[in-house]
Hints:
By secondary structure, the protein is an alpha+beta fold. It has four domains: 12-148 and 157-329, 7 Propeller (Methylamine Dehydrogenase, Chain H); 348-458 and 465-636, YVTN repeat-like/Quinoprotein amine dehydrogenase (Methylamine Dehydrogenase, Chain H, 7 Propeller); 646-750, Immunoglobulin-like; 855-996, 2-Layer Sandwich (Heat Shock Protein 90), CATH 3.30.565. It contains nine helices and 69 strands. Strand 4 and strand 5 (82-84) form a beta hairpin. Helix 3 (752-819) packs antiparallel against helix 4, helix 5 (859-875) packs parallel to helix 6 (892-913) and helix 6 (892-913) runs antiparallel to helix 8 (955-965). The radius of gyration is 52 Å and the shape is elongated.
Amino acid sequence: xxxxxxxxxxxxxxxxxxxxxxxxxxxxxxxxxxxxxxxxxxxxxxxxxxxxxxxxxxxxxxxxxxxxxxxxxxxxxxxxxxxxxxxxxxxxxxxxxxxxxxxxxxxxxxxxxxxxxxxxxxxxxxxxxxxxxxxxxxxxxxxxxxxxxxxxxxxxxxxxxxxxxxxxxxxxxxxxxxxxxxxxxxxxxxxxxxxxxxxxxxxxxxxxxxxxxxxxxxxxxxxxxxxxxxxxxxxxxxxxxxxxxxxxxxxxxxxxxxxxxxxxxxxxxxxxxxxxxxxxxxxxxxxxxxxxxxxxxxxxxxxxxxxxxxxxxxxxxxxxxxxxxxxxxxxxxxxxxxxxxxxxxxxxxxxxxxxxxxxxxxxxxxxxxxxxxxxxxxxxxxxxxxxxxxxxxxxxxxxxxxxxxxxxxxxxxxxxxxxxxxxxxxxxxxxxxxxxxxxxxxxxxxxxxxxxxxxxxxxxxxxxxxxxxxxxxxxxxxxxxxxxxxxxxxxxxxxxxxxxxxxxxxxxxxxxxxxxxxxxxxxxxxxxxxxxxxxxxxxxxxxxxxxxxxxxxxxxxxxxxxxxxxxxxxxxxxxxxxxxxxxxxxxxxxxxxxxxxxxxxxxxxxxxxxxxxxxxxxxxxxxxxxxxxxxxxxxxxxxxxxxxxxxxxxxxxxxxxxxxxxxxxxxxxxxxxxxxxxxxxxxxxxxxxxxxxxxxxxxxxxxxxxxxxxxxxxxxxxxxxxxxxxxxxxxxxxxxxxxxxxxxxxxxxxxxxxxxxxxxxxxxxxxxxxxxxxxxxxxxxxxxxxxxxxxxxxxxxxxxxxxxxxxxxxxxxxxxxxxxxxxxxxxxxxxxxxxxxxxxxxxxxxxxxxxxxxxxxxxxxxxxxxxxxxxxxxxxxxxxxxxxxxxxxxxxxxxxxxxxxxxxxxxxxxxxxxxxxxxxxxxxxxxxxxxxxxxxxxxxxxxxxxxxxxxxxxxxxxxxxxxxxxxxxxxxxxxxxxxxxxxxxxxxxxxxxxxx
Length: 996
């Protein structure tokens, strides 16, 4: 649970009077210009950053939100942006707020300059207007809750008011002996005691007690505050310092007897006293009686006057001024106090007994005083390199000189003979090998080795001649590593030199740092970081494409983390990431960055002095920048372990914004959408990381890359679910995050019923078009059939009048001739005449068929039966015609073609199949007309089926052509058990026009 409210300031009118009195009679302990600035990271926000002005109250609710009240109204702040209350759906009674606070149940209370109060809980405000719910006129000092759970309202002239069960403010029962007069402050301490300060005294109501007790008489205005040790203190503008009201045995009542008369104050969790006043803000160190540090407008405060002070749950200190808001937070890094030095960066070397050598001083630890062993450096007398030998000797190189330091005494060492202009020769790097010899790089003037008091050029190793060394070191195996310009590296192993360059994959530019490892070495330079495994180099890149440029220092912490001193600050890469990067060049390492936001001043020098990073024997790491030196134990760095609350705050589209609400419905035509979100981590809001996902749209988590909004386009109507997670400045993730479900309403043209209506319209239109086409096809068929009928009638007439008449005449002549023959000679000719008569009869039938005989009254079924029954009698085969469904009138052309197909199929069955049974089934279905001719004969030969008929015969091809003419389909199935012909015609085509 969020800690109970500790401090409630006095009323606005009293505060204004107190500020005036304080400005007249208060005297600082010492002049402000003599007070050092508050040694914390300081950030300010003013109106240009969106901050409200005239801030008189700050509070934080358990959900993590920081609330700011004052002359500009009520605001909500997430560390990155300020939101006015009305922009997030809240409507305070007034825009002039004097005090804010939080009740133990987490509700935010606020009171107004001209009277009235409000409670904010669960996103809703409950108002107490003057004259309503028993709310008295006049300003108020705020709301408070005692140990018994009673809710109190402090008034400016009527004492306390207690809220009844009906939500109405009433005067307390006489038995409580509640104080009257003007209530200036209320506080409930950690033990549950309720404290009230009025214009004439301080009163307490212990938890479980039945009445208030007077604890102190007062004459001036003041407030109440609880110290971290549990002691209760009050201020009095008529008397300087703070006054002890209650405390543990042994608490010194004079602890805070400072000379100032305090109008507002706060004890932070470390016990320091914060004092905002008309001069800015002061910070008194715990247990000290004089102001220790001050920040004012001249030193970066947002305004001239400090009005209020507040500490959040991450230990940030917030100060409200007339012009804006200020934040103070403890810096992770603290510059070491060193002698004044004007030449920039300083070289480092570890001391064998702990601490470090820095430039020309020895320090036993980060907080120890610097003990010089030589006169301070100057622009003309620089120390450019330090190296601590295994025997405890410190080697110090500079411009024009080399020294060794033992027992705090410095002794000059002559430079190699023959150097050109030795007075201006700079020593870039120093190292000792396994034999104790000193190696000194003098840049392009050469590499020299000092062994047994004698110098030798390039160590007597020919392979190192002309190799301009910029950095060097020895590894535990006795090998020497040498870095140079232009991506060059050399390794000296037992007198043999191996050289590497860009062709081997080295791409760090000038090598300025070498850190040997168990199975290789880490190489740092102006252009980046690389791992060398003895055969090849692997470039190392950080997440987000971080190149790690400008490296002049590499050092391992005790846990194996690699720390880098580079152009962007200090970077740390964990050992697990180092191992992966060593084998996977595409892997981007995770890293921690310490920079100006953590108190780092300056960055690594671009070349000398070297080294710029070391590890002391106690495990502390030391880094040199162009501005100062910093030392810390990485295991003891302050960490922010609070999981940040995550919220989706608003949806925006088309210039409109809607506060986020679960299940919210967005208006139609919302296709472009902005989703605003935040995480409440105030130490370093710019370092808060976000990942988000709109389910069904995003493929996996998206990195927000510092933004607190996600943008989408071309969103369709429907339901969506947005998720966002966040991490604080130390990478602690809230994996649960926030979820918002919302819906985009469809427009009229996007609704399902509209689409169904459109689809129905399209179907109807297609149906109409289909009907029109069918009618057009039917009319075409009818026209063609009429033409065919006319032509067939003409052919029939021609055949009847010519061929058939001629045959008939020929038969008559032959008959007459036969009758003149004797009886024995007639028989063959009579048989021929009989056959001729059959041919003539068949010819007449064909001619009749050409003329198109109308269907009988029984329709198509009777026509087929009339054709099949004589054949059945002649062949002794069972024949039947079956009708399924209700017979209906058929289109004349369709009926004629269908009858022709059926007659041909029936004829073929009787003549060729040798069946026992032939059945014709007519089926009148809603969708189609089907005619099936089935026989149980011997089936068709496969070659006839494959070829579509017998060569020179046109029965089957004709049947298929007739079916195609009426948009029908003719199917054939045959086997040794019989043959099935099936004609299928769409009913829309088959039905007569009168039946459609």
